[in-house]
Amino acid sequence: MYSCRYVTSDLASDIIVSVGELKFYLHKFPLLWKSVLMQKLVQKAAEDGAEDITLPDIPGGAGAFEVCAKFSYGMMVILNAYNVAAVRCAAEYLEMTEDVEQGNLVFKIEVFLTSSILRSWKDSIIVLQSSQSLLPWSEDLKIIGRCLDSIASKTSVDPSNVHWSYTHNRKLALHDRIVEVGLRSHEGVEPVPKDWWVEDVSELEIGLFKRLITAVKSKGRMDGSVIAEALKTYAIRWLPDTIEDMVSEDHVSRNKALLETILALLPSGSGCTCAFLLKLLHISILVRADEDIREDLMSRVSMKLDEASVNDLLIPSRCPESHESTVYDVELVQSILRRFIAMQTVNQGVDIVEKGAGLIGEGIGHRSLLSVAKLIDGYLAKVAHDQNLTLFSFIDLALMVPESARLTHDGLYMAVDTFLKVHPNMAKAERKRLCELVDVKKLTEEASMHAAQNDKLPLRLVVQVLFFEQVRAVQSLKAARSDTSQSVTNTTDEEPERTSSLRHQLSKMILNEGDAGIQISAKLLRKNSRSHSGAQLLPSRSRRIFSKIWNVGKKKSSVTSGSSQSPTSMVVGETKSSGSSSRHRRHSIS
């Protein structure tokens, strides 16, 4: 079924031009004056005795031909960003050039493109989008290339000189915003962000978007972080929101191609955030991207792991439907961390895994290690809630962090505590192995107080915690006494001896967990108090737990030192003194 178009003119129709489903009833003379192709086709039709001329492959279709026909009749035509590319290609197809008549349609459209369209930000994008359906004509006529160059040039303009309209609807947090403070074109006008252009270009088809970003990068004036923001915006615009759509057979090929394009355009260095890279890594796993793509992403993530947050690392497991699978992909995090540690080892020139004592440098590399250690401890605390997480996986990930990178074990302790809560049926040996991860010397006072009252911990660890609480108390007392009057000469002179005695006693501490209970060397808890002030060295909570442990040990074990006394005996009471004043009494703290 054809639709018909007629031109109101004094000239009667003597030719029918068929374009698609439209028939144009025209007079041949106006067309012959403007189009070389129509001259050839009319001559051929006359030779064949036909009245119909068919244009099956004219770019732009019937709409573009209608504009060309109106121009041939001298009628006013309207050109805009939406139809100019199609009309330009149709005019080229019809050969409406200067060879036929001066000021022909091709010439006029070129003037319009140069003087208006390519000077406009949004018009250039509209023309570029419309050119996709006009290939190869739009490519051969350099419409696409000129639009890309125009758009790329405008993205490189100083934001303070951007006075045209653009789309910027993203609601970014303050720390995510890429804005140059003070870039204001007029008083009271919102500053123009450096990434002002990324939303408009995110509407482009993937092939055109790739060419545009390549053109922007080739100019060498765009910051890598802005390029990364453009890629992130494009990914959000075109990648599905749900995992089901991401992996569906109808979309997985397109999503995979889109991912590969984005990865090919990623800026090197510090342009991309670790959070964005981790999201791409998750997508690459979902769409089953090639192994080299996943390897490249993991390498990129490992180089910026210290910038990640715990939530960034919470990537769902590859087989979430399995009852034995963990909720989150712990193996992936282990692989990333392993790469990070290896990279730090190479950069610092030392084996940071083996070097457990002391700090490893004070530079950027060490700061990164500290950040990653804190990150992994936080991650362990999160994944410890998973009942399917094995003890081996938990311990393996915890031990991958160099000992020197953990300035405090509070985060690791909280992760261990969570694991114990979620896995209450652990064997005694497993519980002991898990708790050996925690170094009680690196617990803060708050964490120590929590651990001392934690009934899920092995008694061995509780005693160690109480022991180091006492050590802290001794150190605090020593620091306080160092500021006292020098008139107390005897007391001051005895501090080194007391500290040495304490260390000697602590070295003899024997903690044996088993059916026989806990045995503590008698010399450790020896009553040797000087005054009531000594009772403050051990908090009442700790004294009660020590007393409880001591009593249990006495009931269950027959092997005790004859000189040992209950820890409670060190709390109240004074040492016997023969002829010495209370001023020269001293405590033996154990």
Automatic annotation (TrEMBL):
Feature: compositional bias, Polar residues: 482-491
Name of protein: Phototropic-responsive NPH3 family protein
Residues forming coiled coils: none
Gene3D superfamilies: Potassium Channel Kv1.1, Chain A
Pfam families attached to this UniProt entry: NPH3
Biological-process GO terms, alphabetical: protein ubiquitination
InterPro entries: BTB/POZ_dom, NPH3/RPT2-like, NPH3_dom, SKP1/BTB/POZ_sf
Start and end residues of each BTB domain: 13-81
Keywords (A to Z) from UniProt: Ubl conjugation pathway
Region (Disordered): 479-502, 553-590
Family per similarity comment: Belongs to the NPH3 family.
Origin: domain of life: Eukaryota
Biological source species: Kalanchoe fedtschenkoi
Limits of the NPH3 domain: 195-472
Pathway connected to this protein: Protein modification; protein ubiquitination
Low complexity compositional bias, start-end: 558-569
Presence of the UniProt keyword ATP-binding in the record: no
Claim: Protein transport is one of the keywords in the record: no
